[in-house]
Write a structure and sequence with these properties.
The structure is a single chain. It is globular and about 65 Å long. The chain has helices at about 35, 45-65, 85-100, 110-115, 160-170, 180-185, 210-225, 235-260, 275-285, 305-315, and strands spanning about 1-5, 10-20, 25-30, 75-80, 105-110, 130-135, 140-145, 150-155, 265, 290. Helix 2 (about 45-65) runs parallel beside helix 3 (about 85-100) and helix 5 packs parallel to helix 7 (about 210-225). The longest helix is centred in the last third of the chain and has 27 residues, at about 235-260. It is an alpha/beta fold. A hairpin with a 4-residue loop joins strand 1 and strand 2 (about 10-20). It has a 5-stranded mixed β-sheet, sandwiched between helices. A 5-stranded mixed β-sheet has the order 8-7-6-9-10, with helices on both faces.
């Protein structure tokens, strides 16, 4: 089966063709990142306009690169939630028009489920497994009991890890996206130079809280400025990143031990973070767990992961009609459309 995937949840306009959920035949991504760098973050109105401009060409290029005509496509899968609502609507409406005009089934796909599926196109992993999903908007520990069977074990109560990294990078004066800039500069810093809190949620051992960490680094910068002190940015970046990664993995480790998982998976944009990847490898070596990491090219938003998950949703009987809408928020375990 050839699934055409369409992804437009944030600032990447993407389309891909994936065969049987695993073989990537094409994966085209058009990003407006450079334009958003001017503003230090994604501007929703700009993102949705760029999607509208790019989506037709991106889909055409994905089909051409895959060697498939539209008639060779068995279903159209599209990200419909969660994300920036204006951006999502561009992808959803284009996919609906394409599905109706070509008489192809339309398969709605949850964005976080797609991130999990980035591992299906990167390895031979099969459920069940425990997955840490870390992105700019989400930080989840999820039990993936089947391709379409998800249970949230823990999640952030406030900021996501990626959001905290990006905002910390911004206050440090680093280029957007701050998380990537922090990752690049941290190896030249002393990760023990600054002490940061390790937040814990009473009665919820698997949940996260990153707002306090974000505030701590902002206060560190402001306090130094008020005192006229010079901040060692590599040291501050390395210390902050070390603490964020430690928080993520301590809860993941506890969840894996408590629920007996031996297969650990990372997903989401922050799964590209070099320290998170290396510390995850070390953690799994200690416990003799099997670790699966998505290829770096599939960590960020892309349509290959949407097409992969779309294949498994299609097999599960998931279909949508021309009344499909987009949603800014929706839990990974309860998908409604």
């Amino acid at each position: 089966m050839n699934i055409l995937g369409i992804e437009s949840s944030c600032d990447e306009t993407a389309a891909a063709v994936v065969e049987n959920g695993r073989k990537v035949k094409s994966n085209i991504v058009a990003s407006s990142l450079e334009e958003h760098k001017i503003y230090g973050g994604v501007v929703p109105e700009i993102a949705s306009r760029r999607h509208a401009e790019a989506i037709s060409g991106v889909v055409s290029e994905a089909l051409a690169q895959s060697g498939c005509a539209l008639g060779d496509i068995d279903a159209v899968a599209v990200t419909f939630a969660p994300g920036l609502i204006g951006s999502l609507l561009v992808g959803v409406n284009f996919a609906k028009g394409l599905a109706v005009s070509s008489e192809k089934p339309l398969v709605p796909v949850h964005h976080l489920r797609s991130h999990v599926a980035s591992n299906y196109i990167s390895s031979d992993i099969e459920p069940p497994f425990l997955c840490l999903i870390v992105s700019g908007g989400h930080s989840h520990i999820v039990a993936v009991n089947g391709y379409t069977d998800f249970k949230i074990i823990g999640k952030t109560r406030d900021d996501a890890a990626g959001e905290a990294l990006d905002k910390a990078g911004r206050v440090m004066g680093l280029e957007y996206p701050g998380g990537i800039s922090i990752d690049k500069i941290s190896p030249s810093g002393n990760a023990d130079a600054y002490a940061f809190p390790h937040p814990k949620i009473s009665g919820a051992p698997y949940d996260y809280s990153f707002s306090g960490l974000k505030t701590a680094v902002i206060n560190a910068v402001h306090n130094a400025e008020q005192k006229g002190e010079k901040i060692n940015i590599p040291d501050l970046a390395a210390s902050f990143q070390k603490n964020v990664v430690a928080c993520l993995l301590s809860n993941l480790e506890k969840a894996a031990e408590d629920f007996g998982y031996k297969k650990i998976v990372l997903a989401g944009g922050v799964s590209a973070n070099s320290l998170l990847r290396s510390e995850s490898k070390a953690l799994c070596r200690r416990h003799k767990w099997r670790l699966y990491l998505p290829e770096l090219k599939y960590c960020g938003d892309n349509a290959a992961m949407a097409a992969s998950q779309g294949y498994y949703e299609f097999l599960a009987g998931v279909r949508a009609g021309a009344d499909l809408n987009a949603y800014a928020t929706m839990p990974i375990d309860i998908v409604k459309f």
